[in-house]
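step=encode ok
step=design start
structure_in=
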């Protein structure tokens, strides 16, 4: 499974539901070819919606940080080019994919790529864990988080997810 070309990604958002108008404000993605990470994509995204206090407490991103950042019209065509026909991989993929599909639909775009959820994979392969949050699964597989890792920031979470996926896909 890990021999396919994949883009492992994560998003941070203004809130917790695209159906309630919440938006993506950060995207991090890691290209994995074979068993190697061969490229990365990361950007904050400027949107008119405000970041909710609860969401900001999770990821630390504020409205002020988004000022002057690229607009969705710039971000999503570039992201689609980065992804190409790759399989998408995310931890709790239904959350990230729902937001991404919503953002792309706003621009009249779609993303029909195949996807893999490392949360579901971890639940199947590691049923003994007390929970299957990304940090828990990573620590079970590799020990401590890497130095300088910012939890709940898109690129750092995508990097963790890439390592988790490569480990679980090759068990």
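sequence_out=
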């Amino acid at each position: 499974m890990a021999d396919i070309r994949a883009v492992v990604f994560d998003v941070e958002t203004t809130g917790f539901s695209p159906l309630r108008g919440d938006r993506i404000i950060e995207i991090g993605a890691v290209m994995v070819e074979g068993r190697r990470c061969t490229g990365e994509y990361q950007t904050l995204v400027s949107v008119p919606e405000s970041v909710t206090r609860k969401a900001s407490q999770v990821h630390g991103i504020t409205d002020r940080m988004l000022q002057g950042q690229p607009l969705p019209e710039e971000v999503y065509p570039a992201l689609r080019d980065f992804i190409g026909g790759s399989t998408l991989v995310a931890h709790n993929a239904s959350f990230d994919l729902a937001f991404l599909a919503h953002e792309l639909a706003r621009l009249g775009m779609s993303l029909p790529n195949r996807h893999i959820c490392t949360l579901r994979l971890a639940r199947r392969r590691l049923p003994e864990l007390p929970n299957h949050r990304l940090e828990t699964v990573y620590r079970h597989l590799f020990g401590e988080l890497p130095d300088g890792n910012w939890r709940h920031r898109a690129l750092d979470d995508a990097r963790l997810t890439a390592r988790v996926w490569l480990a679980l896909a090759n068990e």
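step=design ok
step=annotate ok -> The CA atoms of residues 28 and 154 lie 4 Å apart.
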